[in-house]
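Reopening this one. Same input as before:
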Amino acid sequence: MAHIAQYVYDTFGKFPATVPSVYSLMYLQTHHLDLDYYDKFFGPHSYLRTHAEHLEKRHGIKR
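Same output, byte for byte:
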């Protein structure tokens, strides 16, 4: 792989050759944690307090 990357850099003067060297795609991914799962396998302090508060405040799910 290193040889291919060096060839591309030597040939085109940059790496990667066909897209801008600095490329940023903004996205946001959201989900709800399964707090029962985390409590069972990792303990009650394996997630942020704000996760539990969100479920109660926004969805009425009491912990």
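So the earlier flakiness isn't reproducible anymore. For the record, The radius of gyration is 22 Å.
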